[in-house]
Amino acid sequence: MWAPLFVVLSLTTTDPFPGRAATADAPALEDAGTFEPVAARGLHMTPAISRSLSKKETWLRDKDLRPDYRLTDDDLTLAAKETAAPVDKGRRRSTADWLTAPSGRPGSRILPITTLFNVWTREALPVLPGAWVEERFHRFLRDHYTNQATWMDTRLIGVLAGAARRFSADRIEIVSGYRSPKYNLMLRKKGHQVARQSQHTEGHAVDFRIPGVPTQTLLGYVRSLRLGGVGFYPHSRFVHSDTGRVRFWKGS
């Protein structure tokens, strides 16, 4: 006669990422409150994991971690027709509010002087009269390939804003802002016309165009500023402006 046999199995859970528990220095993403792509990659990439993934798999994973702020052309058309929200009359305004307040009658609706549009990320950055966009400007001009940002030279804001006023432009297309050394090297290996020590990698350059304005005309305005280097790319239809030494070249 067979006696019943009971087997007790102890179930244990195994952390798929050993040694990567949430700490005070590295909190879990769910507790972070905001989504930071760079922090997300740091928490999800340990030496063991990065070695087990191919370059393509790592790139695809990093791409999934990036926030999606993409806009369609219809979104931009609709945004151009909309006006800014009226001023909240019930809120007490600070001195900083008055210093950076857009021009116009208090409580009136205003239109953006122009909209910066990143052709790679398809993000839009409205620039209002009298408003300072420095904090958003750095993130807006980040490297679209690595999703890294840096402190851009704020004199470039004056170049873009000045071009918008000069040509009454309601839209400026940004072709390139910050370029990480990794992305810059990749472009050089692929034969693109990029300098080894590019001003883009220093956060000192921006490539842009204005729809409806001939590239040659835009070139003349940027050269008249004598701020730094100016590159003319008639085939690609954009102008390069940087804050380095004054110089001029023509590319494709």
CATH architecture of the domain at 115-252: 2-Layer Sandwich
Q: What is the arithmetic mean of pLDDT?
A: 74
Stated plainly, the CATH topology of the domain at 115-252 is called: Muramoyl-pentapeptide Carboxypeptidase, domain 2
Query: Based on helices, strands and strand pairing, what is the structural class?
Result: alpha/beta
Number of helices: 9
The proportion of residues in beta strands is 5-15%
Head-to-tail CA distance between termini? 91 Å
- CATH top level class name of the domain at 115-252: Alpha Beta
Rg from alpha-carbon coordinates:
25 Å
The count of strands amounts to 7
Percentage of residues in helical conformation: 25-40%
Shape from CA axes? globular
SSE order, as H and E? HHHHHEEHHEHEHEEE
User: Would you identify the regions where 5 or more consecutive residues have pLDDT less than 50?
Assistant: 5-33, 45-50, 83-89, 91-103
Across the major sheet, the strand order is: 2-1-3-4-6-5-7
**Largest pleated sheet:** 7 strands, mixed
Instruction: Work out the oligomeric state of the chains in this entry.
Output: single chain
